[in-house]
């Protein structure tokens, strides 16, 4: 316990920052015992000064750059979010020998390479457990617990806003707009919900998860992305009729190379879209603002991690766990694992990705429709798993669930269906989780 | 990549050892890339030599002590199990500067203090993720991810054999003996199933989990323990009637100190017993040989970790993750977290533990029975939540589910019930998970 103090700077005093500071100050004896040295808060960078921030005023500063550069700061905790000025602040911190703990998924999804290099060059830590799935340990399990295994697949519900909206649509039969309004009024959706509902937030997390899982650098731009704003009450009802619900999934897969294709190597598919999830699947029961991540690895089999994916307390828990790790390394020597990109797998296009489709169409109710539709699937080498036909006021609806096929073949099939004489409209096309085997 | 080789010795070549050796040899390029140096298998200690062990014969040895002492061994992986000679081998390894990775819950539950001291004195690592819940990362999340939080409670299904038996009893209505025989024939139960069905295995894991969660040394002897061999088909049916199933739970709780009691400090309750689990609880759906651990922490809220709790592959996955951590530390410096027992909380007796009871009794079907029974609960300050009365061939059965009360008060109530004139027998007493609020 004779070790010098470890100085901590916190950047940002929003929901997460406030909780980080509160816990750090109220449990200081525990932190000292767990780290082996006292953690001392040197300052908190805020946008504007003011009283009643729950922090002694002499700790507050608007000069984040100055705080980061202080000689008595050993670790910088960044919970501001966004790209600039945060990227510059973190690089400054790393380059001046300070370890960094961040919850910033948008920054990591695009700049992990740059930040990780800076950390490595300075022999300091860059920890970011809180960037994916809030309180749920996912980053550390992928980087450390599964470091001796081969991860094949990571599938997660990693955005609480969209999960709240889809859970509400499923439970109440409400449409998207009403459920979004409801989520907004309860504080689960922001005034501009684009980053959440269009899948950008989930795509950033998918990029981080895929990078860790496959030892390959994957950025947000590599992730195929569709949001939930086009999901209708009819989609949920149709999903329910085939024993499914709809979830926005972040999916990261190692796709086996095909012997008939040029390099034949395994490649990475990273994608975010709303998908039908069978009610028997562990992710189907993850409701509301909760998150869950399923990891499938060769030796471990299927693992699931479940918990609160957002909020001040849960995110602060992850941030503070990382802070303790970084501080222990400052006290006892050593550092956390570096970025691992040695596998350098190719990131493949969505068209080459094997998946399943759930196609909902309105058809004219007459003999021969089903066989014509089935023929189009067959022509494109797409095998059908389930067909469900129902009379409607204006004709009939036809739902086709396929077996696994290439996304490109499924797209071509749908395009062809739209030209069939008795198919009036392909109302919705959703993918479905699971191999169906 | 210019680092010298890291020498690895494996002790034991059963289900787990074979998988560890197979993966280590088949994925050596991945291990080298992830560690920053080649991992080289120096030898495998077995009880008796023989061909067809899946390992080159020149790597096999019956001299475990000699293998552990070799100068070119940096890390020892122990997957033999049991106390001796393993305890001596691990102490020898640690004292001679080798890091140790073990899956040995029985050893750790009793000797963590001795082993952790030896590791600390020699400045080497002692990792044991595989000792609890097989492939599921639980040890690392508790020691690292939640190191900045306050854990209040850990509840887990950590024994696959008993979970298989109880799942089968629930699904088929079969009795305990038949379900045990079935588990044996499928390889889920050993010829002598005592360690599993009487809760000793789960108690060892509860000791490890409680130690990590509460920064307090807890050994197997500190864990209150009941097994499942007295559970009947009638218990499962009765549980179902109140919306529950029965699971063998390992429970570790920080119980808040009472202001009216002498020291008033929080204390630790660690216990293993079969309990009613409401079907709405996330642990209720963990079936068969799967394990799951729920952690409740102040800031993080409720987390759940789910996966395969046993078997060669899943256990090897955890062992190899630890091996990579230990090897990275050998290459890059630093070490994993030491044992943390600074909190030194008192471990309280079962009688002081707050819990809920589900009491099943046979009564004479006449006016006044219910009021007499209710009066006994009231007399002992135990509040009743649900009463269910049913006519049977010989009279009537009465089930009482209580609210939270002290275990000692519940015991006294049951003793008093047995002396009531119209209560013919108290057939079964089970605890119930959840606060009921």
Automatic annotation (TrEMBL), chains A, B:
Keywords: Amino-acid biosynthesis, Methionine biosynthesis, NADP, Oxidoreductase, Sodium, Threonine biosynthesis. Pathway: Amino-acid biosynthesis; L-threonine biosynthesis; L-threonine from L-aspartate: step 3/5; Amino-acid biosynthesis; L-methionine biosynthesis via de novo pathway; L-homoserine from L-aspartate: step 3/3. Signal peptide: none annotated. GO terms for biological process: methionine biosynthetic process; threonine biosynthetic process. InterPro entries: ACT-like_dom_sf (IPR045865), ACT_dom (IPR002912), Asp/hSer_DH_NAD-bd (IPR005106), HDH (IPR016204), HDH_cat (IPR001342), HDH_CS (IPR019811), NAD(P)-bd_dom_sf (IPR036291). It comes from the Bacteria. NADPH binds at residue 105. PANTHER family: HOMOSERINE DEHYDROGENASE. Residues 358-434 form the ACT domain. The keyword NADP applies. GO terms for molecular function: homoserine dehydrogenase activity; NADP binding. Belongs to the homoserine dehydrogenase family. L-homoserine binds at residue 190. NADP(+) binds at residues 11-18. Pfam families: ACT, Homoserine_dh, NAD_binding_3. This is Homoserine dehydrogenase.
């Amino acid at each position: 316990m004779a070790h010098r103090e470890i100085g901590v700077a916190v950047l940002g005093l929003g929901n997460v920052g406030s909780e980080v500071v509160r816990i750090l100050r109220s449990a200081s004896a525990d932190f000292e015992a767990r780290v082996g040295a006292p953690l001392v808060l040197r300052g908190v960078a805020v946008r504007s000064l003011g009283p009643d921030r729950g922090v002694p005023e002499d700790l507050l500063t608007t000069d984040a750059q100055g705080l980061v550069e202080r000689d008595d700061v050993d670790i910088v905790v960044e919970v501001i979010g966004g790209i600039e000025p945060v990227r510059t602040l973190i690089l400054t911190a790393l380059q001046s020998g300070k370890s960094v703990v961040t919850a910033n998924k948008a920054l990591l999804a695009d700049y992990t390479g740059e930040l990780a290099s800076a950390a490595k060059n300075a022999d300091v830590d860059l920890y970011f457990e809180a960037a994916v799935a809030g309180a749920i340990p996912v980053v550390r399990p992928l980087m450390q617990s599964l470091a001796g295994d081969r991860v094949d697949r990571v599938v997660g519900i990693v955005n609480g806003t969209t999960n709240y909206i889809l859970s509400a649509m499923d439970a109440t039969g409400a449409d998207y707009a009403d459920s979004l309004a409801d989520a907004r009024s309860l504080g689960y959706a922001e005034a501009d919900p684009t980053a959440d509902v269009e899948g950008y937030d989930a795509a950033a997390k998918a990029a981080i998860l895929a990078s860790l899982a496959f030892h390959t650098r994957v950025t947000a731009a590599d992730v195929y992305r569709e949001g939930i704003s086009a999901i209708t009450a009819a989609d949920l009802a149709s999903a329910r009729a085939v024993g499914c619900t709809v979830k926005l999934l972040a999916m990261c897969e190692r796709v086996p190379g095909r012997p008939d294709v040029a390099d034949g190597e395994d490649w990475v598919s990273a994608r975010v879209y709303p998908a039908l999830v069978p009610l028997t699947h562990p992710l189907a029961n993850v409701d509301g603002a909760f998150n869950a991540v399923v990891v499938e690895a060769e030796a471990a089999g299927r693992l699931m991690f479940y918990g609160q994916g957002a909020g001040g307390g849960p995110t602060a828990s992850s941030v503070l766990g990382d802070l303790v790790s970084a501080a222990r390394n400052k006290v006892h020597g050593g550092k956390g694992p570096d970025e691992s990109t040695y596998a350098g797998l190719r990131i493949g296009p969505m068209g080459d990705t094997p998946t399943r489709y759930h196609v909902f169409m309105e058809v004219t109710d007459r003999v021969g429709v089903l066989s014509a539709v089935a023929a189009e699937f067959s022509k494109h080498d797409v095998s059908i798993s389930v067909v469900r036909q129902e009379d409607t006021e204006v004709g009939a609806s036809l739902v086709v669930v396929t077996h696994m096929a290439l996304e490109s073949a499924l797209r071509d099939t749908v395009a062809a269906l739209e030209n069939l004489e008795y198919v009036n409209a392909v109302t919705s096309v959703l993918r479905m989780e699971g191999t169906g085997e």
